[in-house]
Design a protein that fits this description.
The chain is α+β, with helices and mostly antiparallel strands and 127 residues long. 20% of the residues lie in helices and 38% in strands. It is built from 2 helices and 6 strands; from the N terminus they run βββαβββα. The strands form 2 sheets. It has a 4-stranded mixed sheet with strand order 3-1-5-4, with helices on both faces. A two-stranded antiparallel sheet has the order 2-6. The longest helix has 13 residues.
Length: 127
Amino acid sequence: MIEVVGAVIRDEAGRLLTVRKAGTSRFMLPGGKPEPGEALEAALPRELEEELGLQLARAELLGRFEAPAANEPGAIVRSSAFLAAVEGEPRCGAEIAEMRWIDPAAPAVSLAPLLADHILPALQASK
């Protein structure tokens, strides 16, 4: 089981910020794996700073979700997804190859199963 944290970041138009990590083909939420002994609440701001140069202003748990890992065959990923308010302009850093703002109702990119099958439906249900 791979434990990760993810940030649901939306702009004024309701688009969702997604990232594609280097060497991968699917887009996912910004975030990543906590360091050993690191709390999820501490991992989220660290990952956002490292990956996108963003400062976390506040976060609220959307939910915990599990799905097959997009980039590690045979593995299951468990994500704690947080609705996040951030400060700053996102820029690709750390292992991020590309970022895209997508329409959650009609994403035009290939998404990780966790995002496509679980997090996007949870966002629609929470409206």
